[in-house]
Specification:
The complex is a heterodimer of chains A (262) and B (250). Chain A has 262 residues and is mainly α. Chain A has a single domain (14-91, 106-240), classed as 3 helical TM bundles of succinate and fumarate reductases. Helix content of chain A is 68%, strand content 0%. Chain A has helices at residues 3-13, 15-40, 47-59, 65-93, 109-112, 114-134, 138-141, 146-151, 160-169, 171-198, 207-233. Chain B has helices at 33-46, 118-127, 147-157, 164-168, 175-186, 195-208, 219-223, 231-249; strands at 3-9, 18-24, 69-70, 73-74, 96-100, 109-111, 114-115. A five-stranded mixed sheet of chain B has the order 2-1-5-3-4. The longest helix of chain B is centred in the C-terminal third of the chain and has 19 residues, at 231-249. The chains are: A mainly alpha (262), B alpha+beta (250). Chains A and B meet through helix 1, helix 2, helix 4 and helix 10 of A and helix 6, helix 7 and helix 8 of B. The complex binds protoporphyrin IX containing FE and FE2/S2 (inorganic) cluster (FES). FE2/S2 (inorganic) cluster binds at residues 56-59, 61-66, 82-84 of chain B.
Chain lengths: 262, 250
């Protein structure tokens, strides 16, 4: 093999190299989550804003943008899982004989369950894609956006707004979502601070700040993602039928909390 | 004071080993931890038994020879000291104390509480040195070294190579040791020219010895008798990556 290939391969096999892959893919995934939560919160702006956003995602770069993002995320997740699983295996093999009386001095609980929080997130992501992207449940698959069709004769689009609300009205779906997002918050409460160390950007001076940043992002994501099932389950967010022929999401019941107009 | 000891006993490297219980009666509180073991051993020998084998040398916290995981924590839960600096007054009468060897696949047990730490020597032999003689102590300021670098190098050089970092890490990772050994040379002008070669060789030897990777939990930093900061691990990550990139493209 050529020397360049050999050097790259050797780096990717080393413990430090694999850990760097975990950190770099972790950064990409965190950035994706920040974008994803911001987009999701448009649900509070009403049907039109949510569905416009979904339509934008599917039509940007002539419809290729969404595929570029999907393939990029798939590669990032794949590398993250390969590197972490192989590191966890090696790390366990390095300590075959355990202590009869184990003790932990300062490692946080979150840092000690990274593989379990990670695998729960993985299970959730698979479910989430089948649920909202592939839409295996026909009740969520056939939801045309009536207001849009009326305003744009001859065109149609999926009513993502209605799908999200219907989806979360199932308490089991919401429960899984809450558990997974809580474990994601745990994963990131360690992961974000940790990636600074892996990238070589942590020192005694910066450590506290990086830890706070990790917690801040983890909690912001937790609140952002969970506000949606919480609003649906408490009834604050309802799928009100839009009046066809007019702009969508005009509140028909003045007593209900009015969704803000987008 | 009277204590109950739960001690790891293992005849040799191939023996399975087990925890055995000893009653240590009327131990003076002013005894050091190792003196307490000496007393227990004298009594064991008088009774015709095998003494408990453990490593020690200077007994003043400078050589790095003593080991022992005491109640699950290498060198005990007292911060910034070695096992030989632990005193019995830190325990209470009637306590049960668990005494186990430093655990790591790369540190095989030789006998009882004695482990083979020559993996560390092989890592140092791979690159933890400067190839040429750099002369005696320089005249002050003949070779300018920024104060911050000198301090950081000195702090890293405090490592006595005891292996507590490995024993505390749930992955038995040697990153704090390797980081300290690499940093103390890499930070100084005498060590700079060989930095890349050194870091690549030491990290590769570390992986080959079967130490685990770092998961950034800093258990190592918490037990290090010389309180070496995990900053040296961040630096090792940085230096190794830079060296690997240079190796790949230059
Ligand atoms: C949205 C999804 C995910 C995000 C944002 C994420 C983020 C991160 C981050 C930032 C780190 C810290 C990197 C470092 O310490 O340098 C990390 C570590 C880790 N991740 Fe994930 N992760 C995700 C999914 C997963 C999945 C699906 C797994 C399943 C195997 C996983 C397993 C792990 C493990 C085991 C570690 C610790 C690695 C170590 O310390 O050696 N993660 N993750
Ligand atoms: S015996 Fe020398 S450091 Fe403990």
């Amino acid at each position: 093999m050529n020397p360049l290939g050999k050097a790259i391969l050797q780096f990717c096999r080393s413990t430090i190299g694999r850990k760097l892959i975990v950190a770099l893919t972790g950064v990409l995934l965190v950035l994706f989550l920040l974008g994803h939560v911001a987009g999701n919160l448009l649900v509070f702006q009403g049907r039109e804003a949510m569905n416009d956003y979904a339509q934008f995602l599917h039509t940007m770069l002539h419809g290729q943008g969404v595929w570029i993002a999907r393939i990029g995320l798939l590669i990032a997740v794949g590398l993250h899982i390969w590197a972490t699983v192989s590191l966890v295996k090696d790390n366990r093999a390095a300590r075959t004989e355990r202590y009869a009386l184990p003790a932990t001095v300062q490692a946080s609980k979150s840092s000690r369950i990274m593989i379990w929080s990670g695998l729960t997130i993985l299970a959730f992501v698979v479910f989430h894609i089948l649920h909202f992207t592939v839409r295996i449940d026909p009740a969520l698959a056939n939801l045309p956006d009536a207001a849009y069709a009326a305003a744009h004769p001859g065109e149609s689009r999926h009513d993502v707004y209605a799908m999200v609300i219907k989806g979360f009205q199932n308490p089991l779906v919401s429960l899984f979502y809450i558990v997974a997002i809580t474990l994601l918050c745990s994963h990131l409460s360690h992961g974000i601070a940790s990636l600074f160390q892996t990238l070589g950007w942590r020192s005694r001076k910066s450590a506290a700040l990086e830890k706070q940043l990790g917690w801040a992002i983890a909690i912001a994501l937790w609140i952002g993602f969970l506000s949606i099932p919480a609003a649906v389950l408490t009834g604050a967010l309802k799928d009100k039928p839009s009046v066809s022929g007019q702009k969508a999401a005009i509140p028909s019941d003045p007593a209900a909390p009015a969704p803000r107009q987008g | 004071m009277n204590l109950t000891l739960k001690v790891w006993r293992q005849k040799n490297a191939t023996d399975h080993g087990r925890i055995e219980t000893y009653e240590a009666r009327s131990i003076p509180a002013e005894a050091s931890f190792l003196e307490m073991l000496d007393i227990v051993n004298e009594r064991l020998i008088e009774g015709g038994g095998e003494p408990i084998h453990f490593d020690h040398d200077c007994r003043e916290g400078i050589c790095g020879m003593c080991s022992l995981t005491i109640n699950g924590v290498p060198h005990s839960k007292e911060r910034g000291i070695t096992t030989c600096q632990v005193h019995m007054r830190k325990f209470r009468d009637g306590d049960t104390i668990w005494i186990e060897p430093f655990r790591a696949r790369a540190f095989p047990v030789v006998r009882d509480l004695v482990v083979d730490r020559t993996a560390f020597d092989r890592i140092v032999a791979a690159g933890g040195f400067i190839s040429v003689r750099t002369g005696s102590a320089q005249d002050a300021n003949a070779l300018p070294v920024p104060k911050d670098d000198a301090d950081a190098s000195f702090a890293a050089a405090a490592c006595i190579g005891c292996g507590a970092c490995v024993a505390a890490c749930k992955n038995a990772s040697a990153m704090l040791f390797v980081g300290a050994k690499a940093a103390h040379l890499n930070l100084l002008p005498q060590g700079k020219p060989e930095q890349d070669k050194r870091v690549l060789a030491m990290v590769r030897q570390m992986d080959a010895e079967g130490f685990g990777g770092c998961t950034n939990q800093y258990e190592c930093e918490a037990v290090c008798p010389k309180e070496i900061s995990a900053d040296v691990i961040a630096k090792l990550n940085r230096d190794y990556t830079a060296a690997a990139v240079k190796e790949a493209v230059c």
